Amino acid sequence: MKTLPIIKTEENKERDIISCPSCKKELDKQLVVMRKYVCYECGYYFRVRAKNRIRMVADEGSFIPWFEEESTGNPLDFPGYEDKISETKEKTGLTEGVMVGECTIGENRTVLGVIDSRFLMGSMGHVVGERITLAVEKATEEKLPVILFCCSGGARMQEGIVSLMQMAKTSGALKRHSDEGLLFVPVLTDPTTGGVTASFAMLGDIILAEPGALIGFAGPRVIEQTIGQKLPEGFQRAEFQLEHGFVDAIVGRDKLRSVLKQILKTHLPKEGYANFDPEHDKDRYDATELMKERAAKAPIMKVWDKVSAARQVTRLGAEDYIAGIFDQFLELHGDRYFRDDPAILGGIAYLDGQPVTVIGVNKGKDVASCIAHNYGMPSPEGYRKAIRLMKQAEKFHRPIITFVNTSGAYPGLEAEENGQGEAIARNLFEMSGIKVPILAIMIGEGGSGGALALAVGNEVWMLENATYSILSPEGFASILWKDGSRAEEAASVMKITASELKNLHVVERIIPEYGMADAPALTSICAYMKGHMKTFLKEQSAFTGEELAAKRYERFRQF
């Protein structure tokens, strides 16, 4: 990404023509600006000046700059540095490489910071670090969220070790901000590298990135010159970081302001867990008459019939219920360690106005999507993504709802290498003490520890034709009877159906399927779930976080 290079010729005196560094085509600058500095021919993202970035996201006229009086010194007495700073100030009109201040975004008051690459490539000198730290400290004092646009080549070489110290200073300020339960959203733009990546840029509650942005600790040139390694196409780009679990979402500039508004609104302080919009605050239990009639005509299913029904590839999945029950679902990606597991779908949504964290297993609906989602068998990074989102929900006092449909945790070589057992154990450990309500719903198969790792709930519900078991009937028969062909017989003695598990107090509620959990039944099943979810959250609002965790512990202690 580069700033806009203007070409002046006899033919374009009437308008500014710029050249796109990516596709090399000549562009009308005014049209590029209207598209938020994105090439209308190839989608290339030009770098954006700090003031223009502020105009793009903040409510008009709301930005008030802070700490502009902080001036740059020369801590190492580096030759020519003071002259370089003076020249850069004159050329850019900036006082340093970052602007910080307060504004409103969608009328939500927030602290906003923007690093400008024109000022020594947005490098982090002591004034950049100081302004960011002061802004975070003031945000902590005034209980405000922080949004910070990152664009930097890393540490400022002319300031040496003093620049290095800014990494610890800014990170420490953000720790205090986080400990107060406050929101931090870094937006990673091109480039975000070096000491900025290794400090505040990667410490967000939600980390957003622009398409195609270069994001990495050691930049490509450093890697190639240091160890002589040639990098593959797309390495360290935003899409690479999303796939590898380090950013939550890639958001185009045309949607960025609306996404930031949604995030800020979702994280406004609320009391209790039942902050429903008054016009929607009605219990919704009724199925359509057609579905009631369908349910009355449904044949009685044997245990093996339910096993088969739970495994149907056309069965309604987590993504169907999320779309049918919740509003404005914002999917969040990644475990922040290794990868984004496509078998686990998670994010933040509204239940008639009440923010909730929603997590589900995504199996896929056809051969291609089943392969893409590993047939709903989560890997360690999937469980780590799930618990990351749950801990985030706890921090922001947001209830958690999970939709479980898995034959079990992925048993492959890579899963064992990456700690499958530890990841499941860690979820059980952490979920037992989370201080917000957790509702787990078995919507298909509930296979062994791979399902339990998402189901340590204050309540566990189950669709009437779902199953929940220690392992598959085939595995059970193979282990106990050394004969996997006796799976149907095994299913009949394992007590794996909703009615059997309710009798054992393993589940609190059975959700009707109105014949079968398929597309025609979606509206009715969602209506039933939604009404009872709202009742559940109203009931849980009577308890403190400590009481919720204690009640969850006692629920499982009885077994």
Descriptive report:
This protein is an alpha/beta fold and 559 residues long. It contains 22 helices and 19 strands. Strands 4, 5, 6, 7, 8, 9, 10 and 11 form an eight-stranded mixed sheet that branches. Strands 12, 13, 14, 15, 16, 17, 18 and 19 form an eight-stranded mixed sheet that branches. A hairpin with a 2-residue loop joins β5 (98-105) and β6. The longest helix is centred in the N-terminal third of the chain and has 20 residues, at 160-179. The radius of gyration is 27 Å and the shape is elongated. The protein starts with 5 loop residues before the first strand and ends with a helix.
Helix amount? 25-40%
Sheet having the most strands: 8 strands, mixed
From the N-terminal CA to the C-terminal CA, the straight-line distance is 59 Å
Low-confidence segments:
6-13
What is the CA-atom radius of gyration, in angstroms?
27 Å
